[in-house]
Write a structure and sequence with these properties.
CATH architecture of the largest domain: 3-Layer(aba) Sandwich
Largest sheet: 6 strands, mixed
CATH topology of the largest domain: Ribosomal Protein L4, Chain: A
Strand order of the largest sheet: 2-1-3-6-4-5
Order of helices and strands: EEHHHEHEHEHEH
CATH class of the largest domain: Alpha Beta
Shape: elongated
Distance between the termini: 72 Å
Number of domains: 2
Number of strands: 6
Radius of gyration: 30 Å
Oligomer: single chain
Structural class: alpha/beta
CATH superfamily of the largest domain: Ribosomal protein L4/L1
Helix content: 25-40%
């Protein structure tokens, strides 16, 4: 008995859906939302590379170390090489010098010595680490765009009121500005868990150590222009 074979139809490939662009709310100094803004994929849309971020942060912290810690060995501490007492007959333990590491005020065995802790990270790796950290914050919805810095005076209460209005009080925040402003620095320096950085000084360590990223609109535009170079 002949069996009829069904003609296999050609499967049409469905086009892949484009990933939705990352967006962040735009808020005023008083906490009022003024819409949303699209974040550049070049900065906020990359796949986070955790190992690159780890290596970059490790190098950043290592480069902050002065490397000046030093202890004295038995040849550097105060004291001579004269034998404190004779070898036998005193009932005391044998001793050859008062600078022995076993003695109080003696030398230190294998103590720290001055050294250079500096680590070099290629520029491309540093940039990838920063973009990975920014993308991770954008993915978690922890990026806020500030329409303008309406700081009337360099007072801590002004900055505290801004954080409270935007529900950021008590949270670790990184405020990214387009240029250094003495008033902003003075208003933020006494608030714990709040850091201020100029956009071109931003690094992966600054981003990962803070829960929230607050970027002024002008700083965001400068970042996007810098990333397009």
């Amino acid at each position: 008995m002949a069996t009829k074979k069904k003609a296999a139809g050609k499967k049409t490939a469905t086009p892949a859906k484009a990933a939705p662009a990352k967006e962040a709310p735009v808020k005023t100094w008083g906490g009022e939302e003024r819409g949303r803004v699209s974040l550049a994929d070049r900065l906020f849309g990359v796949r986070p590379n955790g190992h690159v971020v780890y290596e970059t942060v490790k190098a950043y912290l290592a480069n902050q170390r002065q490397g000046t810690a030093k202890t004295k060995t038995r040849s550097e501490v105060h004291g001579g090489t004269k034998k404190p007492w004779k070898q036998k007959g005193t009932g005391r333990a044998r001793a050859g010098t008062v600078t022995s590491p076993l003695w109080r005020h003696g030398g230190r065995i294998f103590g720290p010595r001055p050294r250079d802790y500096r680590m070099e990270i290629p520029k491309k790796i540093r940039r990838l680490a920063l973009r990975s950290a920014l993308s991770d914050r954008a993915k978690d919805g922890r990026v806020l765009v500030l329409e303008s810095l309406d700081l009337r005076e360099a007072k801590t209460k002004e900055m505290a009121a801004f954080l409270a209005a935007n529900e950021l009080a008590g949270k670790s925040c990184l405020l990214v500005v387009d240029a250094f402003d003495e008033r902003v620095a003075r208003a933020a320096r006494n608030i714990p868990r709040l850091s201020v950085r100029v956009w071109d000084e931003l690094n992966a360590h600054d981003v990962v150590r803070n829960e929230w990223l607050v970027i002024t609109k002008s700083a965001l535009e400068a970042m996007e222009k810098g990333a397009a170079r």
